Amino acid sequence: MREEIKNIISGASDDQIDLGEMEIKDDEMAEIMQFIVQSRPQLKALFLNNNLISDTGAKAISLGLPSLKQLSRLDLQANQIGKEGLQAIYSLKNEETKLAIHGNKIGDNAVLEEIKKAAFRK
After folding, report:
1. Would you say 18 and 8 are in contact if contact means Cβ atoms under 8 Å apart?
2. How many domains does the chain have?
3. What domain range includes position 76?
4. What pLDDT is attached to residue 121?
5. Burial class (CB within 10 angstroms; exposed 0-12, middle 13-18, buried 19+) of 112
6. pTM
7. DSSP characters over the chain
8. Mean pLDDT of 13-40
9. Please, are residues 49 and 40 in contact by the beta-carbon 8 Å criterion?
10. Which residues contact 71 (CB under 8 A, 6 or more apart)?
11. In a 10 Å sphere around its CB, with 0-12 CB exposed, 13-18 middle and 19+ buried, how is residue 7 labelled?
C-alpha cells in the first residue's frame, strides 16, 4: 500500500475516511480494505470517488463490507465499475449503507434496479 494512503487512513477520524482522487487502482484495493477493516472497524463513511477502480477493485471492496457493520455511506462515484462490480457491492453491503455510484459504467437505470433487486432477494 502506498505510504500516503496508509497515512490518510491512519490519521482519519474513526468514522470517516476520504480516499477520493488518489488514483487508486484495482490491485491496491484488497490491501486498502484489509487495513481499513483492521484499523477502523467502526467506520461510517468511506469515500473512494474519482479513482481508477473497476469491477476487480469493487469485488475487493465488497469483501470488506460485511466487517464494516457501521458503514452508512460508500462513495464510489466517477470510477470504472460495471455491472459485475456493482453486483458484488450490492450483494455484500448492509441494507442501510447508502451508495453513491454516479459516473461509473452503468448508465441504464433498469440494469441498476435489476442489480439492487437481485441483491436483496437473498
Report:
1. yes
2. 1
3. 3-120
4. 59
5. middle
6. 0.90
7. --HHHHHHHHHS-SSEEE-TTS--BHHHHHHHHHHHHHH-TT--EEE--SSB--HHHHHHHHHHGGG-TT--EEE--SS---HHHHHHHHHHS-TT-EEE-TTSS---HHHHHHHHHHHH--
8. 96
9. no
10. 43, 44, 45, 46, 65, 93, 94, 97
11. exposed
Closest CA to 27 of 44, 2, 10, 49: 2
A 10 A CB-CB count for 82 gives 15
Tens of pLDDT, residues 80-109 = 999 999 999 988 888 789 999 988 888 777
Q: Is the pLDDT of residue 122 over 60?
A: no
How confident is the model over 58-71, as a mean pLDDT?
Answer: 95
User: Which CATH number belongs to the domain containing residue 67 in this structure?
Assistant: 3.80.10.10
At 45, the amino acid letter reads A
The per-residue pLDDT for 95 is 79
